[in-house]
Amino acid sequence: MADALRNLATINGRFAPTFAKTMLATPRAAGEAEAFAAHCQAMGFEFTTDWADNNIPFVAPLLREFAKPRGQIRYLEIGAYEGKNLAFMDWLLPARLDVTVIDPWFDEALNPEEKYHAVEPRFQRNTAKLNFDNLTTRKGFSTYELPKMLEAGEAFDLIYVDGSHTAWAVGVDLAFCAAMLKIGGMMVLDDYWHHESEIGGPGVKQALDRFHAVFREYFEVTSVYRQVALTKTKEIPR
């Protein structure tokens, strides 16, 4: 309750109307989380976390509406972990996605937690069961990989940002993703209410608030809850 009150007290005023609409007026997809859980069990996925399951009633109708007028969707995901969100996207929008994933998993110098030795193989086993048109995996940190992708002329319809929680890294992710997002495309940022990163210092919220303060004329705020969805309305001069 204390965290919820702090979040409400510190909400970005520009996001407040959309937050109210999302929480009070937007239809939620009743039963979607349970249906996806049953799908995961039937498929025999090896997921060990349920971090994002509470997002499903909000994000499922948002993504379905986004996909309605589109054919194939170029999709970028930053921070794949075991592949659970990829499995959700494959379940929600079957045979619609051309996917690129960025994740460092275990890195001896910068991401040396031993648990990642087991996470990457689980990701490989889980994603082997998916039916994407294409799945490209870039093993590395998004702050290093995104500049290469921008230089190569990559462009995406839909981007999901759930990598580092430090404000610096999130700011880099948002800047490069905004440049590679097509007009009319949408990027969804997870963990908006993280005021402080796990390693200390400012977190996700500060990065997104400042990004939107600078670039708000180029984006429509589409949805705000634990995640924030921004739809690109025009190209950003750069």
From TrEMBL:
Its EC number is 2.1.1.-. Signal peptide: none annotated. GO terms for molecular function: methyltransferase activity. One of its GO terms (biological process) is methylation. InterPro entries: SAM-dependent_MTases_sf. It is an enzyme of class 2 (transferase). It comes from the Bacteria. This is Class I SAM-dependent methyltransferase. It comes from Phenylobacterium conjunctum.
